[in-house]
């Protein structure tokens, strides 16, 4: 990851950072809920990363660093209360249903799941997004969330239990 000048040039930046944009977007969308707010957040994060490009070459896990920057930026946005009353959509689930009834049923189930996830506390939503949707390792999540790996595992277990409880509550 280190360049000869210990600084990223535009080509190296685009080669290493651009492929992460989809993951950054999904994380931002999970935290901010709004697709438009998530797009704006990712653009802001990309600008921040570009401005810090001289420091990026020294990062051992660039993707985890980018996810941390995204998480912090989204938290800042939430603190500013710029994102209110927006709908949640989840577009990264492939739908292989053959007929319209199955499509509608699947979309309804995904919407119910997303509603349940959205009702969870933000740290639970974040852990579910990182581990169960993005498939990050516990080590990477610990770095992103600034928690110990043990704490990540315990909190993720609690988040999953809370999600199950929320889903049961919604079904009744």
From TrEMBL:
GO molecular function terms attached to this record: DNA binding; sigma factor activity
Residue ranges occupied by any RNA polymerase sigma-70 region domain in the UniProt entry: 20-81
Matches recorded under InterPro entries: RNA_pol_sigma-70-like (IPR039425), RNA_pol_sigma-70_dom (IPR014284), RNA_pol_sigma70_r2 (IPR007627), RNA_pol_sigma70_r4_t2 (IPR013249), RNA_pol_sigma_r2 (IPR013325), RNA_pol_sigma_r3/r4-like (IPR013324), WH-like_DNA-bd_sf (IPR036388)
Protein's UniProt keywords contain DNA-binding: yes
BP GO terms, sorted: DNA-templated transcription initiation
Pfam families documented for this protein: Sigma70_r2 (PF04542), Sigma70_r4_2 (PF08281)
Residue span, RNA polymerase sigma factor 70 region 4 type domain: 112-163
Keywords: DNA-binding, Sigma factor, Transcription, Transcription regulation
Recorded family membership: Belongs to the sigma-70 factor family. ECF subfamily.
Designated name of the protein: RNA polymerase sigma-70 factor, ECF subfamily
Organism: Psychroflexus salarius
């Amino acid at each position: 990851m280190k360049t000869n000048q210990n600084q990223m040039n535009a080509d190296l930046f685009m080669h290493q950072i651009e492929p992460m944009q989809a993951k950054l977007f999904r994380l931002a969308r999970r935290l901010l809920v709004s697709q438009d707010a998530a797009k704006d957040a990712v653009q802001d994060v990309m600008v921040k990363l570009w401005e810090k490009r001289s420091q990026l070459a020294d990062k051992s896990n660039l993707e985890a660093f980018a996810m941390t920057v995204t998480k912090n930026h989204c938290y800042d946005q939430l603190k500013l209360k710029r994102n209110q009353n927006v709908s949640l959509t989840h577009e990264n689930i492939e739908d292989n249903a053959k007929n319209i009834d199955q499509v509608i049923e699947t979309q309804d189930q995904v919407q119910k799941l997303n509603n349940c996830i959205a009702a969870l506390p933000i740290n639970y939503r974040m852990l579910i997004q990182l581990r169960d949707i993005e498939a990050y390792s516990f080590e990477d999540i610990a770095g992103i969330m600034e928690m110990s790996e043990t704490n990540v595992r315990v909190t993720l277990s609690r988040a999953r239990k809370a999600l199950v409880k929320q889903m049961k509550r919604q079904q009744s």
